[in-house]
Design brief:
29% helix; 11 helices; homodimer; 15 strands; seven-stranded parallel beta sheet
Chain lengths: 342, 342
């Protein structure tokens, strides 16, 4: 039984975490890796992600690599915005490969980017490949897990999902991304220029609404600083009282004039009770908590790699997590999870 | 757009709850109902389940009904054991209808009933219909929800799922089924003759193992009484201290000599902290709680009816919950959730 040939497209922090997990899997064979960072190009891909050499060099020429190696599947992790990554996704699909991407806007692109969604879906259908955008959020904790929890409900009156994270144990770029250590004024400037913002609420809310069959009037989003009441510190930085410890972002899906889908993301240093918390007002009411929360980087890599057999089994087209079979980890030979003969 | 013609096969307490929910759905049309209870035969089906008349009488002649009405889908709820319901399932499929059944052993029949599973799968494939066994348990809280939670994991070392229920608010047959009010001796006799037992642990454990790619050595099950420490009472019965308040059933899936899948079902009168509780030891660890738990009868009806579009969208064959797209409630027109033109 042959192995599934895969390429890692984008070897940043998330792409490297994806690759480290994928490298442990039976049935996958990395035939290439792409990154534009001159410090990475030419390096052995295995070494670049912190493991042993695997004899595959990182290249910045995606087109040539795809033509030469003809991968079955590409794990893509280069950006959050569809307009930036669309040419890459089209090029990958053109080579005949399925794609699983961490691009947040790809997780449910039909509301915010309907034209690109249609273009990608048509291309995937024509070439007979499957395209999926996923990750832990968007892609799992604030959308698919919410929808899954409604599976036991006969009525759903409203949905609220809160992701409450202690950023102390996350990497420095994450801590900077949430504004830790800034003054409130600096924070507001970075919100205004779009630097501080989780991308994905539009997608998660649209996926929940579509899954339930609710028609969205609109989505409102706010991004506020979470100020430190007392000094807090991480391995990397220190925040004085009154400075910004992190972010509190809310996304509200308005349905029939009412705020029926509420997403609430808090990520800050020193958060005392990190958790994922889903409340579905309905029949029955569901009050679901994941104690301690789910670690973002690890879980995004998990969701990407765990989706591989489900994407290989999928019909062609632009798919979302709610279209594929129920998520799950898988261990052992990939072939055991794939319906077609590899 | 035409409505999907459905038949309710089995109008006991669960079948009636299923029907009450299904009757509220747009896009479904009940064309018949089957039950063998002489007190129900001939009655209007809508009235029999506690609603207004719908002009469909309950019949005890399934064969004639299926031939006459040619339903698209049958909701089946007559028994827990495959050998009992197999002839019914084959007859329904022969009429060309998809089937969603509450039969516990159908939820994942490949381990305990491999021959019947193969026979049903072949019949479904030949006739090009889809067959699904599901419900809240087995079918959701102790298997699919567990697997879904592993979707964010890179390692899974063990899985434990506990269902801890206060039986005080459940119907009398349920309270009797768990042995409430018996002496410990009476309880043990009823365990010995098979009267007191949740059917489904074998199926849930096998589904989890298969989903993760783990090879089961065997499954061990124990059924113990939960004794009342103080007198407790429900609407229907009173339990003295030292008598049986309910049941504590454990199912343990042994993998590589280790108890890696542990299911723990406690249902008793006066339970102080009812909940669903899933702990996955892995990377990351997942500790998930549904506060208050999920009401069994309501949720089983939810899962059955919420599965309708997913079954209509499925390829033919004997499917399980882990094969179909991620669970979710759906509201509004069924057509919005079905890929083919109805």
């Amino acid at each position: 039984m042959r192995r599934v040939k895969i390429v890692q497209y984008g070897v940043g922090p998330i792409g490297a975490e994806v690759a480290r997990y994928a490298l442990k899997k039976s049935g996958l064979q990395f035939v290439g890796a792409v990154d534009i960072d001159p410090k990475k190009v030419g390096k052995d891909f295995g070494e670049a992600v912190g493991g042993p050499k695997i004899g595959v060099s990182i290249t910045n020429d995606a087109k040539q690599l795809l033509a030469k190696t003809e991968p079955d599947l590409v794990l893509h992790s280069t950006g959050s915005y569809l307009k930036d990554v669309k040419p890459q996704l089209l090029e990958i699909m053109k080579s005949g490969a399925d794609v699983i991407s961490t691009c947040e806007e790809l997780s449910y692109p039909f509301l915010k980017n309907p034209a690109i969604a249609k273009e990608l879906d048509r291309a995937a259908g024509r070439i007979k490949v499957t395209l999926l955008g996923t990750g832990v959020n968007p892609g799992f904790v604030m959308d698919v897990l919410v929808l899954t929890a409604t599976g036991v409900c006969q009525e759903v009156r409203s949905v609220k999902s809160s992701r409450i994270q202690d950023a102390s144990c996350r990497r420095l770029p994450f801590q900077k991304k949430i504004g830790a250590g800034l003054t409130p004024e600096e924070f507001r400037l970075k919100v205004a220029d779009g630097t501080i913002k989780h991308v994905g609420f539009q997608e998660s809310i649209a996926m929940i609404a579509s899954g339930l069959g609710w028609k969205l009037d609109r989505i409102d989003e706010t991004v506020e600083p979470k100020l430190a009441e007392n000094p807090v510190a991480s391995e990397y930085l220190r925040v004085e009282a009154g400075q910004v410890a992190g972010v509190n972002q809310r996304g509200i899906g308005i349905v029939g004039g009412e705020p029926l889908i509420v997403l609430n993301l808090q990520a800050y240093l020193g958060c005392p009770d990190p958790r994922e918390w889903i409340v579905i007002e309905g029949r029955p009411k569901i009050d679901l908590t994941v104690k301690g929360g789910v670690h973002g980087d690890i879980a995004t890599a998990s969701v990407i790699v765990n989706s591989i057999p489900r994407v290989l089994n999928s019909r062609p087209g632009l798919m979302t997590m709610k279209d594929l079979s129920a998520p799950s980890a898988w261990f052992g030979e990939l072939q055991n999870f794939v319906q077609r003969k590899l």
